[in-house]
Amino acid sequence: SMKKITYVLVILLMVVILVSCTAEEPAVQVVEAYLNAVVDQDDVTLQKLVCEEWQFDAMMEMDSFLAVNPQLQDLSCSVVEDTGDSQLVNCTGNILATYNEEQQEIDLSLRNYIVNEVSGEWLVCGHQ
After folding, report:
1. In angstroms, rounded to a whole number, what is the distance separating the alpha carbons of residues 75 and 114?
2. Closest CA to 60 of 29, 85, 38
3. CA 81 remoteness from chain centre
4. What is the pLDDT of residue 63?
5. How many other C-beta atoms lie within 10 A of the C-beta of residue 70?
6. Beta carbons of 85 and 116 less than 8 angstroms apart
7. 9-12-17-23 Cα dihedral, nearest 10 degrees
8. How far apart are CA 23 and CA 72, in angstroms?
9. Per-residue pLDDT tens over the stretch 64-104
10. What is the DSSP letter of 88?
């Protein structure tokens, strides 16, 4: 029946979408999660995503957006350099921040995030 075919197509489409999501590099996933934690002001998640030695800087970065109602716009990240246990991730898109009723766009592409594999986990360890 037509209904059954539609159902099967929907399931297939979901599988394709899931596969394309899981195919994302772990370093890319962690930077995207990090940026989401920054704009969500989610310090618990943030701490799980960063190297110990970079936690203070990450918290400072998050705090700098505290009063400006930040939002992510068109976020898309990719690995631009891979040295095995360390990768550089660059993102396109913006953080929209509102200062005194004025919205500013912070261009994410201006920095590369340093993502290192630390005992089997990919963590954001800084940016350049």
Report:
1. 17
2. 38
3. 17
4. 95
5. 20
6. yes
7. -160
8. 22
9. 998 899 999 999 999 999 998 899 999 999 999 998 889 99
10. E
Residue pair 60/43 in contact by the 8 Å Cβ criterion:
no
Q: How far apart are CA 72 and CA 64, in angstroms?
A: 15
Long-range contacts of 46-55 (CB under 8 A, 24+ apart): 49/123, 49/124, 50/123, 50/124, 50/125, 51/116, 51/118, 51/123, 51/124, 51/125, 51/126, 53/125, 54/124, 54/125, 54/126
Paired residues of 124 in beta bridges: 50, 115
Cross-strand pairs, 98: 103
The span from the CA of 61 to the CA of 39, in Å, is 10
DSSP 119: T
Using pLDDT thresholds of 50, 70 and 90, give the confidence band for residue 124. Answer: very high
Task: Residue 81: name the closest of 35, 116, 56, 119 by CA.
Answer: 116
